[in-house]
Specification:
The protein is globular and about 60 Å long. It is α+β, with helices and mostly antiparallel strands. Strands 1, 2, 3, 4, 5, 6 and 7 form a seven-stranded mixed sheet that branches. A hairpin with a 2-residue loop joins strand 5 and strand 6 (117-131). It has helices spanning 2-38, 42-47, 73-82; strands at 49-60, 66-71, 88-92, 96-100, 103-114, 117-131, 134-143.
Length: 150
Amino acid sequence: MKFFLILLTGGLFTGSLHAQQAEDSVKWVVNRMFEGMKNADSGLVRSALADSVIFQTLVTQKDGSIRVASEDPREFVAFIGRLSRGDADEQITFETVRVDGPLAMAWTPYTFYYKGQFSHCGVDCFQLVRINGAWKIQYIIDTRRRQPCP
């Protein structure tokens, strides 16, 4: 009986340790993208993204309706490369990270500062895929507003 309890406890611990390591590696990739943004390092940003990454944002129209707008990731990466260090500072917190094999999701409330001034806030929702053993951001959709911030 003791042997069975030891095996069961060890298996539960190993499983939760593996899940935590997977979550940490997902967070690392997302943080890497924001580190690249803050340091105006377009190469670092690009290294976190899948080749077919999709960027979208929810836009509130004047009439209050919501529209999904797509952005060109190549233009975003090029824009980051033209900035000076510290110009783009997106501060996130990880509210939820989920992993299922080669698929992961991260929900991150954020506040964005441009050239030291508050710009906007919202939530980023990331979908990541594990490609050739490395996590890559495949899809980002976000909300943007001036207030209230998360």
